[in-house]
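Why does this matter for the project? Reviewers at the last site visit asked to see concrete outputs rather than summary tables. In response, this paragraph embeds two records directly. Each consists of the residue sequence and, immediately after it, the corresponding structure tokens. Nothing has been edited or filtered.
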Amino acid sequence: MKRFNHLGESNRVPLELKATINLPKTAFPMKANLPQNEPKILARWEQTGIYERIRQARKGSPTCILHDGPPYTLSLIHISSS
């Protein structure tokens, strides 16, 4: 979106992104209080040993590599197994 001044020069106007999408109206708060909740979640994961349990459950399974990079707008995400 451009605006032109009286001399014909254009200045870019910032786009209001919220106006470009149609979000549903709900009574749920949109904020998850992540700065307060993330440390609690991480502490619970540490306490339950979830990472080690997942590693143990997957022991001996084939390895998968997710080649993460720029968004794949024109093709499928690239995944390879070994």
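We now turn to the second protein, recorded in exactly the same manner.
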Amino acid sequence: MRLFDLFRWLLILLSRPPQTMDHTPSPQQPQRGEPAWLRLARAELGVKEAAGAQHNPVVLGYFRDAGFPEIDNDETAWCAGFVNAMLERAGYAGSKSLAARSFLNWGKTLAKPYPGCIAVFSRGDPRSWQGHVGIYVGEAAGQVRVIGGNQANEVSIADYPKANLLGYREPVTGGNSRTTRASALGIVAAGAVGTAILDSQTQLLGINAVLREIGLTNPALALGGALLQIAVFIVIIWARVDDLKTKGR
């Protein structure tokens, strides 16, 4: 009898349809490997504006850490202030602005979002300056889910229509910066050319003196050398400006 019951139990078990497991991470729970500014933002969930004439000092702290210590009230729109504060606390330069759309000119653009990237939305007229910014944690049913400040006057997780999305951005880091890629290319070139590359740095210091001597005997060569120098300086300045711009500084 026991063997029969065991056989029947096995038949019932095998006849059940397979159950699918939902592996979608909960936006409320920290996930392994997420960036530091997202972890910091989660710790702020529930912070609200103070009622009446009072002002929540925690919200004022967001303004301070974002670079606007002069703001002394929590009625000033603070979604960009919150995101900037989380980035700065994590050691990354923010957009240096309290305008949500300032993040469209900050960092690097992303084609595909990941938890922790910055999501920028339009608000009202898509052509206006108004917007909203938050930290991406997921999406569902045409909605983008972000942790953000000033969402119903508090730090919360909220959904915004994907139709209002203006773009995803991420900060420039050591792994995705133009400088790092250029440096890596330089290392490869140095390995290929050998120690002559290392010696050339010292030799370059004498270029000005050599060009001046050449100019005394052949003005045409001196002019060509001067133009070459100008071109090199332009490239150096361009690379530096571009690097600072993408870092949001």
